[in-house]
Specification:
It is built from 8 helices and 3 strands. The chain is mainly α. Helix 1 packs antiparallel against helix 2 (33-59) and helix 2 (33-59) packs antiparallel against helix 3.
């Protein structure tokens, strides 16, 4: 837990808190709604990642008598909560942007603040690359969510920087307009994450694992007929596979079962079960 998930999540919390303080200071000093909105986005990122960090203790908790398959699916619940927070943030920003668009207020541009916001954008991009690397190693949905959110935030901050730079030149309405654009991307990203997390919570077929198991069995060189392959999802790196084969007197079931279990090597699969059914069933 500590090496795999803990310190990357705490690093993300710390970085987002620092970015929140910097952007909040610049936003209040310059009266830029875009930058102020972006700062609140970083604060909510910190809170949602902190929630994920707390939840990971349950994810790594050992199985119990009442929960024999562990608590891995809590990760999907955390992903859902984070996506709801992102969507709610986007809706709040959209409202504030509409108010600013209808009632423009002055925005004061300073080059030193523009450089400061550019630096925060660069830091967020580096954080996104880091979590892309962590996701490829762990295949964790939490890491994926933070990675996608970090890339999105990089774009959001870039838009805020452009708005801040151009507001005094093109008119005060630019700040509100850019705020709406930022809000739109945040809402779209949040809704996509909600749909993805809800789909996982309800339960969907893992087509990649099913195809992988099918190909592995086909490459055994044995005359076996597959009737069904079922994947039971208990969270990241915790999936059980039930392979249902057609019973036949022409093959040795023990040998085939042993071969299947030895050949199916996948980090996401923790248990493999092989069942034989009469072809007439």
């Amino acid at each position: 837990m500590k090496n795999k998930y803990g310190w990357p999540l705490l690093l993300a919390v710390f970085v987002n808190l620092v970015l929140f303080v910097v952007k909040l200071y610049v936003g209040l000093r310059t009266n830029s709604l875009c930058i102020y909105t972006d700062s609140i986005n970083n604060l909510l990122d910190s809170l949602s990642i902190l929630l994920a960090f707390c939840g990971m203790f349950f994810v790594k908790k050992s199985a119990t008598e009442k929960h024999p398959f562990g608590f891995g699916r809590i990760e999907y619940l955390l992903e859902f909560v984070m996506s709801v927070i992102i969507s709610a943030t986007g809706l709040s920003f959209a409202y504030n942007s509409l108010v600013r668009l209808m009632m423009p207020t002055p925005v004061w541009f300073y080059e030193k603040y523009a450089i400061l916001i550019f630096a925060t954008c660069l830091i967020k991009f580096i954080l996104a690359i880091f979590f892309l690397y962590k996701y490829k190693k762990t295949k964790s949905d939490i890491m994926k969510t933070i990675m996608l959110d970090s890339f999105m935030d990089t774009g959001v901050t870039s838009v805020a920087l452009v708005s801040f730079t151009l507001t005094n030149r093109l008119g005060l309405a630019v700040d509100g307009l850019m705020g709406l654009i930022i809000s739109f991307f945040i809402i779209v990203s949040g809704v996509k994450l909600i749909c993805s997390s809800v789909s996982k919570l309800i339960g969907k077929e893992d087509s990649q694992i099913v195809e992988y198991v099918k190909n592995t069995i086909n490459n055994l060189g044995e005359k076996v007929s597959q009737k069904n392959i079922l994947v039971y999802d208990y969270g990241t790196n915790s999936k059980s596979v039930l392979v249902v084969l057609e019973d036949s007197k022409e093959v040795d079931k023990k040998i085939i079962t042993s071969k299947i279990k030895s050949k199916i090597i996948n980090n996401n699969i923790t248990n493999i079960y092989v069942a034989w059914e009469d072809k007439n069933v």
